[in-house]
């Protein structure tokens, strides 16, 4: 999925913003969940993006860990960019290794898409609005006003992560997928 998003995402206007066919997504999710072979390359890239966001939303406790939710939310309240980057790196060190590996690939994809935002209309802000709710959610439900404020803070964090992914994850993030 990520490889396909890395290949086609940068040249697709509105990637992660537009939804794939709900029926197709449901059918493919059922196939994937059953372990059946699925050829995502023959589907709309929007279906792949929708399936990927659904996959992220189904990670127990979220990929960024709901247990660290308050710490993630407070990162953007810190001083300068260097302090934010150091705080983010310390939080990443507290995540399970599998989460960190997946995050590196996710932000490799987001970086590639952002680099061609003139073509695809998906700058770091737009990407964050679309993908942030799939990366972290609070451990308990709350009022709509509190959830709205939370979503804004997490979107701001994901925008910062996207814009600074090379400094946070290392320059090699731009070549994780090799020459596709």
TrEMBL record:
Keyword set, alphabetical order: GTPase activation, Phosphoprotein
Signal sequence region: none
Keyword Disulfide bond attached: no
Keyword Phosphoprotein attributed: yes
One of the record's GO molecular function terms: GTPase activator activity
SUPFAM superfamilies according to UniProt: GTPase activation domain, GAP (SSF48350)
Annotated TM spans: none
One Gene Ontology biological process: signal transduction
InterPro entries on file: ARHGAP20-like_RhoGAP, Rho_GTPase_activation_prot, RhoGAP_dom
Name listed for the protein in its UniProt record: RHG20 protein
